[in-house]
Every structure is written in structure tokens, then in C-alpha cells.
Design a protein that fits this description.
Elements (H helix, E strand, L loop, with lengths): L6 H6 L3 H9 L3 E6 L4 E4 L1 H7 L3 H4 L14 H14 L1 E9 L5 E12 L5 E10 L1 H15 L9 H13 L7 E9 L2 H8 L1 H18 L6 E5 L2 E9 L2 H16 L2 E3 L2 E3 L3 E8 L6 H17 L5 E3 L4 H21 L2 E10 L5 E12 L3 E3 L1 H11 L2 H21 L7 E4 L2 H5 L3 H11 L7 E6 H5 L2 H14 L2 E7 L6 H4 L6 E4 L1 H4 L6 H16 L3 E4 L5 H9 L4 E2 L8 E2 H19 L1
Parallel strand pairs: 11-12, 14-16, 16-17, 17-18, 18-19, 19-20, 20-21
Antiparallel strand pairs: 1-2, 1-5, 3-4, 4-5, 6-8, 6-11, 7-8, 9-10, 13-14, 13-21, 13-22, 14-15
Helix pairs in contact: 8-9, 9-10, 14-16
Bound molecules: ligand C2E and calcium ion (2 copies).
The site of one calcium ion has 4 residues, from strand 18.
């Protein structure tokens, strides 16, 4: 018969099976004698704490204390141990490495027949992983996982808290609704991973600008919300908005890509625009949309008329869809005049839309809207079809080789089957790419330069001419553009219109023309309205002029008259 073991012998001289269990269990075990000298620890203890049996033999378990619990904690623990014989709880201890960690610990006292404590027996498990998960879960509901900013619901709560404080009548708070322009397309171009990195970097840049006390959150997708607490004047909000836009305009260098983004910001003010979070966010959102409609890369304050505007937007979307179905658009053409020989060397096709309910809608309004809603693709194809029909019509009237520029929207250009689709339309109408110039904005070609160079080379090989539109409004340098196979560069009208009054604008245009010529690219000045501008541009050796000075955009029938008259006048001029 087996001899009954004394408790102390049991722990110090375990039999084989118990020893196996003792060492293989994943929970740490520590046994001390009655005076709290460690007498035995198992393998899991060594693993979790980093101390070996030799390190701790004879020592007091105090060596594991992290200092996270105060004296009263240990007092309560000992009280319970002494009265109930067991204690169980969460405790922060310290590993040999100095790292502190949470553990779930059970301690039991072993008492001999005389009622004296002979041993203490502690079993614990490292719950740092569990804690991490708990914290993550907690944060998940409070913060945005990607940027670590507050999330939508935390933001609303904090904002409501902020505005529920008693306010001095002088103090206002501003709410900024920050939205990245065309971020969906950037994401599609560079991929979601890079998109995520951009969003994180955007959050970091804004954090650097704003004060700690302001509430900053990611509202979702590419939208951020920011409060400016206790401002005295709206001007302060405008200043901050400008700073944010400026800082986001700087290039993002991610994974070898140089990425440019712009942002639009809407601003609402507490208390004048609303006294609860819902309303303030709603109005800042409306103002943001207005900023986008107005051309993006800018901020706007909420104003009452926007209420009506939101109805217009709903109508715009519905009507635009219908108009594409019913092909309600017209194409106007604006002549381009060669400076050297005064010939009409081509025309730019510009879309026009007159709608029963909305009246004349400017392409400046509906093109960005169509880009945001994806309607730009069917719309662009429709425009190309209409241009082809006009080419056929002109051909029948003896005008055979008039080059036509068409504006290519970024999203349209990014489609994988862009080339096949436009080529199919040209084939259908028996039109040749050699008669067409594709106008792409600087921002479109900057998006993913490598792919774009290949695409442009293919287009050029197909016979299209390539033109960079709105040059000077993006951030590309001319030497950068050298990589693209360009035929024309169009200097943005904002420069042209100031060349006669601002010397620096004149210097910029002068420099653009010189450098473009060195790269064998012809320069078009657009938005030319006055004789003085024409004169100056001529002196600067600009190649082509387009603008109201010669003609506004006109429908096809008027264009035919214009061409005829131009020829007559030219002959008269030559006589
Ligand atoms: P854009 O490509 O820069 O076109 C030039 C704009 O300047 C046109 O405005 C034109 O009417 C206007 N313009 C021409 N000469 C002058 C001038 O001397 N002074 C002033 N102040 N303006 C002048 P529009 O037609 O309202 O078009 C605005 C923008 O909408 C265009 O800018 C282009 O980005 C877009 N757009 C127009 N038609 C199309 C189209 O068929 N497809 C696409 N994707 N975009 C288009
Ligand atoms: Ca254009
Ligand atoms: Ca332009």
C-alpha cells in the first residue's frame, strides 16, 4: 500500500505522473513554504516570468511585483487568503526582463494538521494577450482602426459633450468636414493598401496642424471631422482650413509613388448653424459638397441657400441619368488660332447641357458631378459619338482635316478598356484617331505615371495627339512631363488672364513656353480675352491661342460660318 505523503513532501518530491502534469501544464505554478520562500516553480512559470528555478529558489515572490498594485491591494489579498485559504484575482506582475504583464492568479494556502500554513500554492496564467484583445475591442468601438483617431460615434458624443458645456456668448466652435477629392479614383489607381497609407498620412498631417484640445475623427472612408474649439471669429476657421488644404497639397511619397491629392472642406459654426452634433455635421457636409461643386481644393462655410442647393443636387443626379439616356447634350466648338499664320488649326469640343428643369447647366458643375457618380463614362462615350457625327457632317461639307480636341476625364482614362472602347466608337463612325487630340489634365497624368506613360505611348501610336490641359494648376514640372509623349501643352487661363497685370505670372508663362519648346511641345494659351494678351503672347512666342478674343465656343453650324468668314477675312487681310 502506498504511504500517505505529507503535503510538503508531496510538493517537493512529486511522483512521476504529478511531475509530468506539474511541468507540462500551460499555467505557471509557484510553491512557497510557509515563510514565503519559493521552493518550486514549473516550466510555464519560467517561460512566463523569465526567471529560472535557480533564479528564484528561496526568494520571496515579491520579486515579481510590478508596483502597479498599492499596499491596500496586498492587504486585502492577505486578508482573504488568511480567512478563506484562497485568493483569486487579476494582478500585474513584472517579468525578469522588466516588462510588466497581467496575470490571472489563484493562491491557496496549505495547512497541516496542526492548522499551520506549510505552503502557499500559486497558479497563474498570463492574460496579456487577452488584455490586448479586450483593449482592441474597446478601441474598436471608440476609435478608427486605420488612423487611430476617434470614430464617428465617439466624435458625435465628444462634440455633444463640448457643446453642452455652459458657453460664453462670445465663444464659438467650428466644425470642419474634410473630404479628399476623388479619393475613390486614387484608391482604384494605386490600390487599397496604398490608399490606406495615404489616409493614415493625411490624419498625421492634420494632427500636426491642430491643437490637442480639438476633437479630430475619421468619419468614414476619406472623410475627416475636426472641431476648432473656442474660436472668436470665423476667420480662424478659414485660416485653419487653408492650412489643412495646403498641407494635403504637398506630395505623398508612398511605395515609390509620388501621389498628389486635394481636399474640400465644409465648415459649420456652433451655435449659429446648429446646437447639436447631428445638425452641425449635416451642415458642414453640405458646405463641403458646395466646395467640391465649386471646383474642389477649397473650403466653404455653410450658408442658408445650401438648403435649396441640396435639392438641386438630387435633381441633378436624376436628370443627368435621364439626359444620358435621351442624349440631351450638345457639343460646342471653340476655334484655336495659330499665332504664326493666323490659321484655324483646330477646335476644342466642349459639352453643353440644357435641361427642362435645371436650365443651362455648366460643365463646370455637371462634369465633376458625373465624375463622382461614375456617370462620366457613359457621358464621355456619348460626347465622343456626337463629335464623330459632327466630323462626318463636316466631311460631307468639304471640311476634311480639322483637328478636334476632346477633354478626357480622369476616371474615363483610367478604365482598363479605355483604348478599345474609344477605338470602337471611332471605327463605328469611320473616324480616324489622327484627327483627334486628347486633352488630359495635369492631375490625370500625375496619378500613376508609369502606367500612364505606356498608355499614352500606345495612344500616340494609334494616331492620337496628346495635350496637357490646365497646365500650371497641378504640381508637375516641365522636366517631369518630358517623360510623356506630348504634342501640346495648354497654359491654364488663370495664368493667361493675369499676364498683362502681374509680372510674376508673365515670367512663369514665358518660362513655360521656353521650356516646352525645348522639349518640342507646342504651347496653347487658353482663356485669351484681350488684344493686349494676344500681343504679349505673340512676343513670348506662344504657338496657339484659344479664347473669347477670337470666339466663344459655338455650335457646329456656327462654326462652319466662322471658318468661312475667317477665310474671307484672311484673304482680305492678305490683299
Ligand atoms: P477646359 O477644358 O479648361 O475648357 C476651357 C473652358 O474655358 C471652357 O469652359 C471654355 O468655355 C472656357 N473659355 C474658353 N475661352 C475662354 C475665355 O476667353 N475666357 C473665359 N473666362 N473662359 C473661356 P466650359 O465649356 O464651361 O468647360 C469647363 C470645363 O468643363 C472644361 O475646362 C473641361 O474641364 C470640362 N468640360 C467641358 N466639356 C467637356 C467634355 O466634353 N468632356 C469632359 N470630360 N470635360 C469637359
Ligand atoms: Ca480642355
Ligand atoms: Ca483647360
Amino acid at each position: 500500500m502506498k504511504k500517505k505523503q505529507q503535503p510538503e513532501q508531496f510538493y517537493l518530491y512529486p511522483n512521476k505522473l504529478v511531475e509530468e502534469v506539474f511541468h507540462s501544464t500551460t499555467e505557471g505554478i509557484m510553491i512557497t513554504d510557509g515563510q514565503m520562500h519559493i521552493s518550486l516553480v514549473n516550466a510555464a512559470f519560467e517561460l512566463v516570468t523569465g526567471y529560472s528555478m535557480d533564479d528564484v529558489r528561496g526568494k520571496n515572490p515579491r520579486i515579481l511585483q510590478s508596483g502597479m498594485q498599492d499596499a491596500s491591494f496586498y492587504k486585502n489579498m492577505w486578508n482573504e487568503l488568511n480567512t478563506k485559504g484562497v485568493w483569486r484575482g487579476e494582478i500585474w506582475n513584472k517579468r525578469k526582463s522588466g516588462e510588466i504583464y497581467p496575470e490571472l492568479l489563484s493562491i491557496a494556502s496549505i495547512v497541516n494538521s496542526a492548522g499551520e500554513v506549510t505552503n502557499y500554492f500559486g497558479v497563474f496564467s498570463d492574460i496579456s494577450r487577452k488584455k490586448v484583445i479586450e483593449r482592441e475591442l474597446e478601441e474598436l468601438t471608440l476609435t478608427d482602426q486605420l488612423t487611430n483617431l476617434a470614430n464617428r460615434s465617439t466624435f458625435k458624443e465628444s462634440l455633444n459633450e463640448l457643446i453642452s458645456f455652459p458657453q460664453s456668448p462670445k465663444h464659438k466652435h467650428a466644425l470642419l468636414f474634410i473630404d479628399l477629392d476623388r479619393f475613390k479614383h486614387i484608391n482604384e489607381t494605386v490600390g487599397n493598401d496604398v490608399g490606406d497609407l495615404i489616409l493614415t498620412e493625411v490624419a498625421n498631417r492634420i494632427k500636426l496642424i491642430v491643437k490637442e484640445k480639438n476633437i479630430f475623427a475619421r468619419y468614414g472612408g476619406d472623410e475627416f471631422l475636426l472641431t476648432l474649439n473656442d474660436i472668436h471669429h470665423q476667420k480662424e476657421a478659414a485660416y485653419q482650413a487653408k492650412e489643412i488644404i495646403k498641407s494635403l497639397n504637398k506630395p505623398f511619397y508612398i511605395d515609390g509613388n509620388e501621389i498628389y491629392i486635394t481636399s474640400s472642406i465644409g465648415i459649420s459654426i456652433f451655435p449659429q448653424d446648429g446646437i447639436d452634433a447631428e445638425k452641425l455635421i449635416h451642415k458642414a457636409d453640405k458646405a463641403m459638397y458646395f466646395a467640391k461643386q465649386n471646383g474642389r481644393n477649397q473650403y466653404a462655410f455653410y450658408f442658408e441657400e445650401l438648403k435649396k442647393d441640396s435639392k438641386r443636387l438630387l435633381l441633378l443626379e436624376a436628370e443627368l441619368r435621364k439626359a444620358i439616356q435621351t442624349k440631351e447634350f450638345h457639343i460646342y466648338y471653340q476655334p484655336k488660332i495659330s499665332v504664326g499664320n493666323q490659321e484655324i488649326i483646330g477646335v476644342e469640343a466642349l459639352v453643353r447641357w440644357e435641361n427642362d428643369k435645371l436650365g443651362n447647366v455648366s460643365p463646370g458643375e455637371f462634369i465633376p458631378f458625373a465624375e463622382d457618380t461614375g456617370l462620366i463614362i457613359p457621358l464621355s462615350e456619348l460626347i465622343l459619338e456626337k463629335v464623330c457625327l459632327d466630323i462626318m457632317d463636316w466631311r460631307s461639307k468639304g471640311i476634311l482635316h480639322l483637328p478636334i480636341s476632346i477633354n478626357i476625364a480622369s476616371l474615363h482614362f483610367q478604365q482598363d478598356d479605355f483604348m478599345e472602347r474609344i477605338n470602337a466608337i471611332l471605327v463605328q463612325y469611320n473616324c480616324s484617331p489622327s484627327q483627334l487630340e486628347l486633352e488630359l489634365t495635369e492631375r490625370t497624368v500625375m496619378k500613376d505615371a508609369k502606367d500612364i506613360v505606356n498608355k499614352l505611348i500606345k495612344l500616340k501610336n494609334m494616331g492620337f495627339k496628346i495635350s496637357i490641359d490646365d497646365f500650371g494648376t497641378g504640381y508637375s514640372s516641365l522636366s517631369y512631363l518630358n517623360r510623356f509623349p506630348l504634342n501640346f501643352l495648354k497654359i491654364d487661363s488663370s495664368f493667361v488672364q493675369q499676364i498683362t497685370s502681374l509680372k510674376d505670372k508673365q515670367a512663369i508663362v514665358d518660362c513655360i513656353i521656353m521650356m516646352a519648346h525645348r522639349l518640342h511641345i507646342k504651347v496653347v494659351a487658353e482663356g485669351v480675352e484681350t488684344k493686349d494678351q494676344v500681343k504679349l503672347l505673340k512676343e513670348m512666342d506662344c504657338d496657339i491661342i484659344q479664347g473669347y478674343y477670337y470666339s466663344r465656343p459655338i455650335p457646329s453650324s456656327e462654326l462652319l460660318d466662322f471658318i468661312e468668314l475667317w477665310e474671307i477675312h484672311k484673304q482680305e487681310r492678305n490683299v
